[in-house]
Amino acid sequence: MTTPEPQQPNTPLSDTKLVEDRSKLSKMYQHYVEMKDKYPHALLLYRVGDFFETFFQDAVTISRELELVLTSKHGGDVGRVAMTGVPHHAWERYTTMLVEKGYAVVICDQVEDASEAVGLVKREVTRILTPGTLLEEGMLKASRNNYLAAVVIAVNHWGLAYADISTGEFLTTQGSDLEHLTQELMRLQPSEVLFPTNAPDLGALLRPGETSPSLPQCLPPTFCYSLRSQLPFSQAEARSKILQKFKLRSLEGIGCEHLPLAVRAAGGLLEYLEDTQKQNPVSLQLLRTYTLTDYLIVDHQTRRNLEITQTVRDGTFHGSLLWALNRTSTAMGSRALRRWLLQPLLDIKGIKARQDSIQELVDNTPLRQDLRALLRKIYDLERLAGRAGSGRANARDLVALADSISLLPELAYLASEARSPFLKALQKVPPVLEELAKKIQLHIVESPPNHLKEGGLIRPSINPQLDERKATVEADQQWIATLEVDERARTGIANLKVGFNKTFGYYISISRSKSDQVPENYIRKQTLTNEERYITPELKEREARILTARDDLNQLEYEIFAALRDEVAEHADTIRNISRAVAAADVLCGLAELAVHQGYCRPEMVEGREVEVIDGRHPVVEQSLPSGFFVPNSTWLGEKNYGETNHVLRSSSRRVDTKDTKEEEKRRKNDTSYPDLVILTGPNASGKSCYLRQVGLIQLMAQIGSFVPAKSARLGICDRIFTRVGAVDDLATGQSTFMVEMNETANILNHATAKSLVLLDEIGRGTATFDGLSIAWAVAEYLAVEIKARTIFATHYHELNELASIINNVANYQVTVKELPDQIIFLHQVQPGGADKSYGIEAGRLAGLPAVVIQRAKQVMGQIEKHSKIAMGLREGL
Ligand SMILES: Nc1ncnc2c1ncn2[C@@H]1O[C@H](COP(=O)(O)OP(=O)(O)OP(=O)(O)O)[C@@H](O)[C@H]1O
């Protein structure tokens, strides 16, 4: 903790610690400092009239972060205090910016009417916002979950729990390999991670990039970490917290009774939610335990290299796989598709169930189109239920919820003939929800205002007391409305007006030239340049009645609304269950639409290891190129008898033409023996990387149950997909390009199995040619012989083509080009055989290297080739 520097005289106080004697502060600041003491690590927004003000150090931080003017205000006998503020109606916008920057924000609001307060206005903390505990619509991204995670690490084991309080999801797991914990956090991309510690910075929220010695190395520094006390994370505390929250007697039923670290993480997370959401406890679904091995493991590198949710180049959504596949119609659907893509399945039955639904929707175009048209009208039921469940929904939320629920019977009707289980799940709409929707529509006006305490929410004839109060207010308002006409007639003053302002209430306004004509019962209240304002005792009496009646009316409306919201809250889980079914149906409708429009096929999922793709395409590049420009390519991998039956592909470095590919395809029909490892060679920019990624993406798409961009496909299940693509310096951790490459390669060799799919692009490039080639050779050999993982190894080391003649389960493929006398044409076709040239100089020419450099490069290459003994040496030596 740093000691504050002494303050210069006359500069405003910018640190509460500098206030030596708090009694010298004015009353309000004393209260402010008291509150700030309770939340030293958060920014405190303190309501003063129409503003949320911040003082002392928070004012300095906020003015810097939000680029607001830093001013100061008299704080009592201590002099001036640093201050900045935001208008109260805009708090959500400013808070969102602060939370996005990784700050926790505490809202301290006025909880009594300032005009009725005796002494200091009563203020209380009404909301604590941290990155992982947001519920407000404007603060959340519709297309992705907002996860809060909790991590507990003990010797050789870890526990991880996570929740999205806006949708109610709550899951926990436990593992032993710390690498898996890191990967799981990278998959979830939580907005905030809780970590128990005994360190003195307890209670701090570390923003992304900020470090603390109490955080273990395996936790990626890219997230926000809230450092919490150990106690709620202890086994006994955590267990009882879970039992109490879900009214359970044992954890056996939810599968974590024997997973102490999973329990500790989940309990600690619940305690944090209780602590930060005191005013409105969040509603969560029953905790679920999951196992990492239930899903295809796609590590962070691979997810990045395959550009699943964002591109590598600039991190944008546009150009990612999710972008190419997303045809969903609802926010729930787009979140679900994202989750599916980040957690592909291993279970063939589960995959086939999704495929069956897609097939049904592909075959039945009217059903697909009708469902999609209806889904587009459905709001985010999942998050609406979440807000209602924790008492934060406003009247517009309830109307949106009711409108969406009332579309569900129509959805059920459309799905009534459906055969596949995912669509059948839409067939049952719980009657209680229909009743609830009707009740909301009956009670709340069609377009209610945003504010809940200013009336205008409830329809007439719902509550006799409410109608009565409304009638009184209306009668009095009517009296005032006719007063103007009556008084004009009575006084003969044609420009007499009745007006209202906040300070004086109702008044009668008369131009000064007519002031000698005012009747006797008028009492002068205010004189302006051109007019005089008067009141009458009767007018004031009416005014008092109107104001009190209106307050009562608004209060009663609010109470009726709140009771209705509580009723919705009781059914939050039911709404969420049906919204999960809607989300899944939406994803499947979208995937079916995509399959139809992009000409995808249903892959046959098999128990074996084969990866057989006929005329596959890259799902993203295909959509980015003009129609018909993408050249489809086939893939054959993963059948163990390869070497014994195959002779064609083992003839290395052979150039083949299209006829050979056709023959190869014909031969393949009767022969299921495919290599495990393919050495893929070809000129620069010919399409090797694209092909490599295409194979990975097709496999991944198949394991989420989607159809795939190919003429046909037969695919065995993969346990992991690994990629090693491109070379990027990891400056943040001080690792060189080559070290990053070697670390990633080591990870692959240590974790890949015969069921994995390994995609390697140019291993060994970042070092001297001999070292690089030797490493590449040894890595390929290890993968083919020791692990027998299905592998595509793209390389410019043509020497590796020799492996095919030495190892049975290795084959050579090349991406072909057409060579003309003074240029090459990229055919982007993958064919059997190995390439013997890279045409790198030609690529340099196309990129615009000066002609003299190209000329000189050709000369140098001629000489090097003459002297090179690399290939010969390897052939003889190995
Ligand atoms: N099958 C294909 N059909 C049409 N265009 C393709 C195909 N494959 C690749 N391309 C185009 O060729 C470009 C180069 O492809 P890619 O980056 O895969 O080449 P590469 O062989 O890996 O090159 P290098 O060895 O220099 O890394 C891509 O940007 C893509 O637009």
Q: How far apart, in Å, are the first and last alpha carbons? A: 62 Å
Helix coverage percent:
40-55%
Task: State the total count of DSSP E strands.
Answer: 28
User: What general form does the structure show?
Assistant: elongated
Beta content comes to 15-25%
What structural category characterises the helix and strand content?
Answer: alpha/beta
Instruction: List the ions, cofactors and other small molecules found in this model.
Output: adenosine-5'-triphosphate
Q: Pick out the low-confidence regions.
A: 641-658, 874-878
Protein name: DNA mismatch repair protein MutS
Biased composition (Basic and acidic residues): 654-670
Region (Disordered): 648-670
Pfam family, one: MutS_II
Identify the notable features of this structure and list them briefly:
29 helices, 28 strands, 7-stranded mixed beta sheet, binds adenosine-5'-triphosphate, elongated, single chain, alpha/beta, 878 residues
How would you summarize the topology of this molecule?
Elements: H1 27-38, E1 43-48, E2 51-55, H2 56-66, E3 71-74, E4 80-87, H3 91-100, E5 105-110, E6 123-129, E7 148-154, E8 157-164, E9 169-175, H4 178-188, E10 192-196, E11 205-206, E12 225-228, H5 235-245, H6 260-276, E13 288-289, E14 297-298, H7 300-305, H8 321-325, H9 331-342, H10 348-363, H11 365-375, H12 381-389, H13 395-405, H14 408-414, H15 421-424, H16 431-443, H17 464-491, E15 497-501, E16 505-511, E17 523-527, E18 531-535, H18 537-570, H19 572-598, E19 604-606, E20 611-616, H20 619-624, E21 633-637, H21 642-645, H22 658-670, E22 677-681, H23 688-703, E23 712-716, E24 720-724, H24 737-751, E25 757-761, H25 769-787, E26 790-794, H26 803-806, E27 810-820, E28 823-832, H27 840-847, H28 851-867, H29 870-877
Parallel strand pairs: 1-5, 7-10, 9-13, 10-12, 14-24, 19-23, 22-26, 22-27, 24-25, 25-26
Antiparallel strand pairs: 1-2, 2-4, 3-4, 5-6, 7-8, 8-9, 11-12, 15-16, 16-18, 17-18, 20-21, 20-23, 27-28
This protein binds adenosine-5'-triphosphate (ATP).
